């Protein structure tokens, strides 16, 4: 594991952006796996600045996002599609038809999850995957569980996640109860992974994830087994 400890959120954002910058410049046709949540917003801003400075070209890049809420349309400001467009895709020269998220409006979320898994296979997998981590150690929407679940699928969100994510909604009741998420195998198949974790309130969970036992009770702990893991954090001494 490559552990990069940074001083604050600003440094974290720049460090994450630098790794994405290098990937895209070394491999202009790369497949990037992308995350939502508050953590990556600063990194997306930095990359947009690089793009505006003429230093990075997304015309041949493909992206696949980790997850999407079931029942939210792309026009819904709380959907992850809307988030990605607003915070990233609308500001760079990426071909929107190459930006993929699970379809939250699919009639059959299980079939949609299967389609998404197949799409990632057809793309020959993910070159670089950016992950955040939930307060309970979740990655994507792989919540603490009795076992690791391999494939992309529909999941029901943990109580703690519903509460944590309610900050983006008017109330907890409005947070969709389920989502489609990449599974643990899908995540672990990425050739390189960046785990970005910010804020002291996540320090204990991050320590467990990186240095504790590998257990589905702490989903991020599985990343200890990945050979191409870079952790960027401002919450470890
Ligand atoms: C959500 C997303 C995760 C993200 C997590 C942490 O639940 N599904 O992919 O990593 O929140 O979000 P934040 O960065 O806002 O703490």
Give a list of the ligands: 2-amino-2-deoxy-6-O-phosphono-alpha-D-glucopyranose
CATH topology label:
Rossmann fold
- Count of separate DSSP helical elements: 7
Mean model confidence by pLDDT: 97
Spatial separation of the terminal alpha carbons = 17 Å
CATH first level: Alpha Beta
Q: What does the largest sheet look like?
A: 7 strands, parallel
Along the chain, the helix and strand elements come as: EHEHEEHEHEEHEHEHE
Strand arrangement in the largest pleated sheet:
1-10-9-6-2-3-5
In total, the number of strands is 10
Describe this structure as you would to a colleague:
The protein has a 7-stranded parallel β-sheet, covered by helices on one side. The chain has a single domain, classed as 3-Layer(aba) Sandwich (Rossmann fold). The radius of gyration is 16 Å and the shape is globular. It contains 7 helices and 10 strands. It has about 240 residues and is of the alpha/beta class. Helix content is about 30%, strand content about 15%. The site of 2-amino-2-deoxy-6-O-phosphono-alpha-D-glucopyranose has 14 residues, from helix 5.
Features:
Rossmann fold, 237 residues, alpha/beta, 17% strand, seven-stranded parallel sheet, binds 2-amino-2-deoxy-6-O-phosphono-alpha-D-glucopyranose
Task: Provide a short characterization of the protein structure.
This protein has 237 residues and is of the alpha/beta class.
